[in-house]
């Protein structure tokens, strides 16, 4: 599995999310407390961030585990109004290569999957990829489930779906064919949507910002665990809605 987080709010340095909190992304990647599969997340990481509303996200990815990568230090001072970041434990059968590391980005959007689609390498992946429009399928970089599910969500958004409906629709599409764990983050710099489906998800959205993470980053904030089978929506003011899958 993976650990991931998303932030929207006032400009904040990336270090305030990744390394400064006692259980920031680096700490929870190395020593997760709520992870249901695997003991750590050593197969690389990625960070996408928006410097301001309406900006195109910048991205850094690495195949080096997040707690050993010397390049991480070069990111920590960047200020962002929006972030999607993930540390990866590669699913069985998926190579630990850069193309498989979230977040995946396209236009204003960034996406992360914390989970697995069961049977992905046994035909389910081919079946789901076949649902992607040919033009978008041509842009899929790698062989992972996360990349292809992002393409399905982008197709839905292009046809008028909201971010939350796109995420819920992807989960419905997958679960009509197989089982899996499908915790998703999808953001565009203005809004962020997160699903809790088989993995832990916590939310903090009461202080003029929105922070969603696989695990609480600290013990001081007013964190709430998101119920499994729920999609939550946030913006720079906090949590603004939820729906049941």
Short description, anyone?
This protein has 245 residues and is of the alpha+beta class.
Tell me what the structure shows:
The relative contact order is 0.19. A seven-stranded antiparallel beta sheet has the order 3-2-4-1-10-9-11. A six-stranded antiparallel beta sheet has the order 5-6-7-8-12-13. α5 (145-158) packs across α6. The radius of gyration is 16 Å and the shape is globular. The protein has helices at residues 15-18, 25-30, 124-129, 134-137, 145-158, 163-175, and strands at residues 2-13, 45-50, 58-62, 79-88, 104-106, 109-117, 180-187, 191-196, 202-204, 210-213, 224-225, 230-235, 238-244. By secondary structure, it is an alpha+beta fold. It is 19% helix and 33% strand.
Features:
seven-stranded antiparallel β-sheet, globular, 33% strand, alpha+beta, 245 residues, six-stranded antiparallel β-sheet
Between the first and last Cα atoms, what is the distance in angstroms? 21 Å
Oligomer: single chain
Biggest sheet: strand arrangement = 3-2-4-1-10-9-11
Question: Mean pLDDT, rounded to whole units?
Answer: 95
Helix content range: 10-25%
What structural category do the secondary elements indicate? alpha+beta
Largest sheet: 7 strands, antiparallel
The DSSP helix count reads 6
Low-pLDDT residue intervals, each spanning 5 or more residues: none
The sequence of SSEs as H and E is EHHEEEEEHHHHEEEEEEE
Overall shape: it is: globular
- Whole-number radius of gyration? 16 Å
Please report which band the strand proportion falls in: under 5%, 5-15%, 15-25%, 25-35%, 35-45% or over 45%.
25-35%
Total DSSP E strands? 13
């Amino acid at each position: 599995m993976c650990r991931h987080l998303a932030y929207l709010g006032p400009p904040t340095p990336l270090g305030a999310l990744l390394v400064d909190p006692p259980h920031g992304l680096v700490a929870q990647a190395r020593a997760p407390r709520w992870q249901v599969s695997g003991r750590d997340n050593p197969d690389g990481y990625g960070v996408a961030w928006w410097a301001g509303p309406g900006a195109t996200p910048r991205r850094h990815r690495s195949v080096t585990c997040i707690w050993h990568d010397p390049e991480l230090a070069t990111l920590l001072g960047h200020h962002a109004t929006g972030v999607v970041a993930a540390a990866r434990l590669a699913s069985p059968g998926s190579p630990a290569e850069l193309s498989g590391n979230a977040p995946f980005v396209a236009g204003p959007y960034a996406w992360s999957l914390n989970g697995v689609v069961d049977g992905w390498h046994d035909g389910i992946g081919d079946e789901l990829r076949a649902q992607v429009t040919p033009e978008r399928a041509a842009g899929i970089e790698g062989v992972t489930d996360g990349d292809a599910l992002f393409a399905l969500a982008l197709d839905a958004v292009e046809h008028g779906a909201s971010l939350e409906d796109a995420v819920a629709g992807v989960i419905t599409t997958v679960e009509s064919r197989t089982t899996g764990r499908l915790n998703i983050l999808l953001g565009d710099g203005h809004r962020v949507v997160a699903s809790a489906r088989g993995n832990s998800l916590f939310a903090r959205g009461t202080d003029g910002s929105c922070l969603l993470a696989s695990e609480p980053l600290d013990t001081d904030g007013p964190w709430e665990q998101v119920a499994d089978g729920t999609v939550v929506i946030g913006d720079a003011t906090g949590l603004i809605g939820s729906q049941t899958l």
